Amino acid sequence: MDWYPWLNTSYRQLIGQYAAGRGHHALLLHAAPGNGDEALLYALSRWLLCQQRNGGKSCGECHSCRLMLAGNHPDYHVLALEKGKSSLGIEPIRQVIETLYSHAQQGGAKVVWLPQAELLTEAAANALLKTLEEPPANTFFLLACREPAHLLATLRSRCFYWHLANPDEAFSLQWLNRLSPRNPADCVTALRLHDGAPIAAEQLLQPEHWQQRMALCSVLNTALPQQDMLLLLPALNHDNAAERLHWLSALLVDAMKWQQGAASYVVNQDQQPLIQQLANRLSSTSLQQIVQQWLHCRHQLLNVVGVNRELLLTEQLLGWEQMLGSAGYSPPHSL
């Protein structure tokens, strides 16, 4: 697994606590997507399981390290979602707990990694909670989450909370440029679209992915003067429609910033002419209305089972046309 330089400080601090015997048996790591929390928890797992630690590093040579590198360590348990499921039920938790109360097969620590703790069902969270209250000896639980507020308060209270903050923008820009020199405005835009998470920004900047966003911006630039917003439908109606709606909403919010004289704070630094066009064609009230509608549309796409994506997008775009073509605006009804 790749390592990222902004993780060094958190890694040293966490390892220092465990090396001094003060490390908590349950760590709750709060991080934004694309910030490297997987790499941090994997490195911590390797150190906890290593049989011949070299200070703050795992040795890479002992039998435990070789098993980790091969991906089949019997005392390392990853509780990831099964394909096609949106939550983690009680049965995988029960199976792991049963395994934990037997002796460690390698005679050392046992580690449980839960990459998306907020996706636990209530029953699964309660089952895990009982084990966290009275954990087996030399057992460590590493929980990662995006939204700690979505976890049971009792579960959070049993864990040591650690926030993995995004690196500052200047540091992230240097890292992106070391990977591959790019247009500075593109890098700033990719970072801000992902709230400063460098790995997520780097993934967006990959040519095929970046071109999808650029195509959406190009169509919007054409559709606005023609007041033909249905031109956007092919650019939005894809499997990653929620992400594309995030791009679109960010442009609209940027137009609101532009109207307030805050151009330096816009997210889409590479699309300032388009942002200015949006700001000139739409009032601040209209921008606020359409942003709210697109965010609601995105929420429906992500959370309503079986929603007709094309119909939902079409209705939103027709509502936008109505807003552009008349003084008043009546938002489309929700499906």
UniProtKB/TrEMBL annotation:
Q: Name one GO cellular component term.
A: DNA polymerase III complex
Could you name the domain of life of the organism this protein comes from?
Answer: Bacteria
Tell me what this protein is called. Answer: DNA polymerase III subunit delta'
Q: Gene3D superfamilies recorded for this chain?
A: 1.20.272.10, DNA helicase RuvA subunit, C-terminal domain, P-loop containing nucleotide triphosphate hydrolases
The record places domain DNA polymerase III subunit delta' AAA+ ATPase lid at 167-206
UniProt xrefs under PANTHER family: DNA POLYMERASE III SUBUNIT DELTA, REPLICATION FACTOR C / DNA POLYMERASE III GAMMA-TAU SUBUNIT
Q: State any GO BP term from the record.
A: DNA-templated DNA replication
Question: Which molecular function GO terms apply here?
Answer: 3'-5' exonuclease activity; DNA binding; DNA-directed DNA polymerase activity
For the DNA polymerase III delta subunit C-terminal domain, which residue ranges apply? 208-322
InterPro entries listed in its UniProt record: DNA_pol3_clamp-load_cplx_C (IPR008921), DNA_pol_HolB (IPR004622), DNA_pol_III_delta_C (IPR015199), DNA_Rep/Repair_Clamp_Loader (IPR050238), HolB_lid-gammaproteobact (IPR048731), P-loop_NTPase (IPR027417)
EC nos? 2.7.7.7
Under catalytic activity, the entry for this protein gives: DNA(n) + a 2'-deoxyribonucleoside 5'-triphosphate = DNA(n+1) + diphosphate
Q: What is the lineage of its organism?
A: Bacteria, Pseudomonadati, Pseudomonadota, Gammaproteobacteria, Enterobacterales
Keyword annotations for this protein? DNA replication, DNA-directed DNA polymerase, Nucleotidyltransferase, Transferase
- According to its UniProt record, this protein's enzyme class is transferase
